[in-house]
Specification:
Elements lengths: L1 H14 L2 H8 L8 H18 L9 H15 L5 E7 L5 H9 L17 E4 L4 H10 L6 E3 L15 E5 L8 H11 L4 E6 L7 H6 L11 E5 L9 H15 L7 E3 L9 H13 L2 H18 L13 H15 L1 H20 L5 H5 L4 H4 L36 H19 L6 H9 L6 H10 L10 H32 L9 E2 L2 E2 H72 L3
Parallel strand pairs: 1-4, 1-5, 2-3, 5-6, 6-7
Antiparallel strand pairs: 2-4, 8-9
Amino acid sequence: MARARRPRVREAGTVTGLVDRVRQAFRGDQRVDADDLVARLDAVRRFLQVVDGHLPDTQLVPAHTLVERAGARLALSRDHTVVALAGATGSGKSSLFNALARMDLSPVGVRRPTTGVAHACVWGPLDGANRLLDWVGVLPRHRFVRESALDGDDESALRGLVLLDLPDFDSVQRSHQLEVDRLLGLVDLVVWVVDPQKYADRLIHSNYLREFHRHKDVTLVVLNQADRLAPAELPRVLDDLRRLLDDDGLGGVPLLATAALDPSGMGELREALERTVAERQAVLRRLAGDADSVVAGLAELVGPDTPRSGPDDATVRSLTGALAETAGVPAVADAVGQAYRHRAGAATGWPLVRGWRRLRPDPLRRLHLAGPDGAGADSGSALPPPDAGRKPLAATSLPDPTAAQRSALGLAVRAVADRSAAGLPAAWPTAVTTAARSRLVDLPDALDRAVAGTDLGVTGRPLWWRLVGALQWLVTVAAVAGLGWLVLGYGLRALGLPPLDGPQVGRVPLPTVLLLGGLLAGLLLAAVTRPVIRWAADRARRQAERRLADAVAGIGEEYVVAPVRTVLGAYAEAGTALRAATRD
């Protein structure tokens, strides 16, 4: 009876274009270049390396799995093609497996489920496939060799085929389902076996076939037990199954009708497997499909927008301002101006009153910052000179930042992250924010060291200080000389000695001129230099503020902006790698 119906099955397959679809699906112009595939896998590996630490690991599991499985599979035999027969309970997988092998290898029975573990049949020497089957996970006692000396060349067309009979994916035993899911991720080609009773079952379409829409090149669907259908029903069932496959995204996937109990009903399936084995393309197509699926999943992590280099200038300036306030830059700049006036007054003031200035502490010394020439000998600083070629980096005595300053700094850092991450796909803004805040704990010490190590521009003694100081000493010496001369003259008179006649300037004695002239000249010189000192002090304050701002900006770049740029650079590199991993 089965042999009488077989011509009708073949005729129905011709009506629906089965043979043409098979040949189209496995034609040579769809070959996958091995070098291109390896390049795509390397691109996925680069993507994973770039995004490591920036994106959640849970979103990268498929990509890691692809790289690991593809590397392992390509390192194993390229001369073998692993084909799995997958199907529901009662679909006749094991019967189909035995019919293809032409031997009773997999148990067939009424009790369900019958197949609890995967069975493998290898066409060709088993030694060459053992490592591959070890990787797939088929136990040695479930491995069989089909080809033998008695077959001659009858089975030579399938040499290199590793055919697996999988457990039922709808088995009531959870372990069977898990085993099917594991093996479906490892095999090169899947032959889905359905029967006329359950070909439209929601489970196989929603949970399995639909998930294989990116693997159409390595998917084949078989309507088994076709000999149970009436000749008029077979075309309708095949057309309905084709419609369901199209809805699953598997349009163009080969659809064959088989009858496992009739050897003549296996011709088309056997021909498709022979063509697949001969091309040695199934493993490459499977991995290419896996790469397509992974890349499609990763595409949502990298948007099409142009990579950016970092936050805009306005945001960086705002960050620098907040860092300057937190570091006490205004207080240090004011101290520089005060220290300049203090030191300039000590260097250019009247020598007779310079001593009391030395009793006043230097404003920079109070903050544990560098004194003039690093020592402050002229300013009363007790700080020892620093080692040659090294800036003092001891902790300063600047007050701790206020709560308002800390809050302003936090807002500025958040602004850097938000502006830099604007428009990035999900998960990247979190990575940018984390990077921007990654070194906030180290910021206070870094800012303190930056302030302590900045050249404030007030070390040394300008030339004009020395000139004015020398003039002050000159007029002071003149005043003292005039005073001494006058005292000596009064003393001689008091003792009744002859008076000390001295030269006169007009009617005024020279000693009086020296005394009064020295005093007036000293006061006048001090009055003239005071506004100059104020101007120079203000200039020194502004210069120090600029230098401190530059130092603080460097800290902001290193501790906040640079980590953000690193993440953005990783985003750009990830996009480049993902584009390289996309199939042309």
